[in-house]
Design brief:
The protein has about 110 residues and is an all-alpha fold. It has three helices and no strands.
């Protein structure tokens, strides 16, 4: 390729790049102008009805007061085990957890 052909190809590529940039800027400008001209408040639909007060709401209290907690554990109730001992099971106590699955074992490794 001769130097003149390279210059000509370079100029054509630059012209194409400038045309693409200009068209992108023009499209962005048109989109922004359309967004600015569009008024979204006039077309917004209200999905739910506005809130209305119930009859007699002025005489009723707003909400019950939250119970106050001290954050300490009650000491009169001892913690219970998840699995009762054998004597308690004979007396009729049921365990809180299901029985544990059996362990899976593999055959022993043979020594060579």
């Amino acid at each position: 390729m001769s130097p003149d052909d390279r210059k000509r190809a370079y100029r054509m590529e630059m012209l194409l790049a400038c045309a693409l940039i200009a068209s992108g800027l023009a499209l962005s400008g048109l989109s922004l102008a359309q967004l600015a001209a569009h008024n979204p408040q006039t077309e917004m639909a209200q999905a739910t009805q506005p809130l209305q007060s119930t009859p007699g709401a002025q005489t009723k209290p707003a909400a019950p007061a939250e119970p106050t907690t001290t954050g300490t554990r009650p000491s009169e109730i001892p913690p219970q085990p998840a699995r009762p001992d054998a004597d308690a099971q004979k007396a009729g106590a049921t365990p809180a957890l299901p029985p544990a699955p059996a362990e899976k074992t593999a055959p022993p490794i043979q020594q060579k």
